[in-house]
Amino acid sequence: MKSIKYTLFSFLLASSLVSCDDFFDIKPATFIPAENVWNDPDVVNSVIAEMYSSMQLELFFYANGFFDFSHTDLSYCSDEAAVSWANGVFANTPNVVVYGDDWFYMYGDTYKGIRQCNTFIRQSETAAIDPSEKNSVVAEARFIRAFHYFNLVKRLGGVPLITEVQEYDGDLTALQVPRNKEDEVWDFIRTEMDDIVDDLPEIRSESEKYRITRYAAYALKSRACLYAASIAKYGKQDDEHCVGVPSTKAAMYWEAAADAAEEVINSGHYELYGYNVAAGQRTENFHQIFFDESASNREMIWAKGYSLPDVKHNYTRYFVPFSFTRNGYGCSGTPTLEFVEAFEYIDGSDGELRVQNEDGSYIKYGDMIDLFKNKDPRLAATVCLPGDKFQTSFIEVRRGIAKGMQIPDKSNWVNDQSKTEALADGQELTVLGKDGPTVAKNPTKTGFYARKFIDEDVADYNMCSNPWPVFRLAEMYLNLAEARMELGNLAAAKEAVNMVRHRAGIKELDDVEVTLDRIRNERRVELAYESHRYWDLRRWRIAATPRADNGGKGVLDNSPITSLFPWAVYEDGTKISEIDGRVVPKSYIFSRESGYDRVNRPGKQFLERHYYIKLSDADLKTNPKLVQNPHF
């Protein structure tokens, strides 16, 4: 395009990566004459920082980067969670479809990021870059460009591959590039990572730990090839619309995904955090993976860092349980019962919670938390369970009072959190727990709250600095397990998945127990809330009907919100909580609930056509050489 006289570098954009070292000490926002940009090492560094900041990493809030959906989280869009606050399509729209172009579309802004990378690569020949670092920083730009293409291809299928800066000479049609086939984009990402790995450092200094390394490139290759392989096997190829991957390439992609994962695993630079901690420490150990920024945490391959007071996030503000909120909000992304039950028991048995006997009568528990005894330790590190200790109190989830071990008729359910009743011992307590659940207002509708990334010790919920894990070692083991299982290598798949299960503290699988579904479920619980589940459901082609793997119902096909409601047993009276000294019921029963009339949250819906997102009319008009995705 015509040369641009001035370039605006935003301090906020650049510092949104991290500003804890000299590399990211960016000059204040200003107009910088273009002829000075590439002659000033500090400004060249600011360009690199801005390239990082332009990446859509799908982190704590999906609102980062190019998106403006407030505190939206990808967990809402899968079967991981529901929202509790009363506004928005997730709360009010029956069978809401939130999987299409309105939510996930990205095109023009991504190509701006790609152009920025292409410009940097071209200018690197003459820019003020230390010659000893030139190959490395160019490799960084190529990684970022490939990451942009990864975001595009997993949404849209084939897109135009533009690897040179386009120059405008008066002929606009010369800038209009047709779509490449989808597998050509996946191949581009794969070969780019192969080309740059040797130019990237194996490790970074402490001051540069949030810049990519060689193994971040291997990690991107592993993830991208795993996606491509799944689409090759389970998707539909449509070359006319530039979507789909030839089925004959599935094995090649799975091999590439496994090989790249093994490069990371065998590098000697990474290890599963707290692999052999004592059984009683497993829950806290898993929780600390996402807060420990010291050199002893060798699980993170690449993370998005924060540096207070200027570079921060406020995940805790939006996800903290109801009675622990400050300045409003909270209660976002409350886990579903179905998700909670995906966590197995320590002995490897199915994770279904035991709330009723075979005859249908309810099982009574002395404390709410007793229901979750012997569950996978990762559950309590991922989810705030009813009865869990939190700060100086506990998660008090109680839907009401049951007399004669029977759940009250719905017409008698209470939604006023101030209403009190006496139990059989004459002691009064609120009918509802301080953390709900209720139909009205913001308390949980599912009976649970999120915990994984919540910093319950931070004084100001708006000043969180725990990093976002873009790539971590557990994913590499799970990528390896899935790829090897798809290739028929059960022994290698078992070894990889059992590394993750051992660290978790649950039974390792034997040959008979290792199945593709078991590996997928391990991925579901280990990587929960890390923006994997939604995309996994898509690439496996099991979100919509028909399921590609077994012809059954799609996971997100009119899927209802599932909930667990605890009820105080009237006849057993009350006791004093050992945690905070409040009056609480002596015992509880639990009911499973689903459907809008019971939980006041609509189901979700995923349409098969949304495996690929519709190209916008504006982008089609701008570039008539683009073809629309199928079924739109």
Explain what this protein looks like in three dimensions:
By secondary structure, the protein is an alpha+beta fold. The protein is 32% helix and 10% strand. It has helices at residues 11-15, 34-37, 41-53, 89-92, 101-104, 108-123, 134-156, 182-196, 214-234, 250-265, 282-288, 315-319, 337-340, 377-382, 473-486, 490-504, 516-526, 533-539, 596-599, 617-622, and strands at 6-9, 30-33, 81-82, 96-97, 300-304, 334-335, 383-384, 389-390, 393-394, 400-402, 420-422, 428-430, 449-450, 468-472, 562-569, 574-576, 583-585, 588-594, 604-605. The strands form nine sheets. It has a three-stranded mixed sheet with strand order 10-15-18. It has a two-stranded antiparallel sheet with strand order 1-2. A two-stranded antiparallel ribbon has the order 3-6. Helix 15 (473-486) runs antiparallel to helix 16. The longest helix is centred in the first third of the chain and has 23 residues, at 134-156. It is globular.
**How far do the termini sit from each other?**
32 Å
Unreliable residue stretches: 1-32, 64-69
Number of strands: 19
Oligomeric nature of the chains: single chain
Average pLDDT taken over every residue: 89
The main sheet comes to: 3 strands, mixed
Short description:
With 632 residues, the protein is α+β, with helices and mostly antiparallel strands.
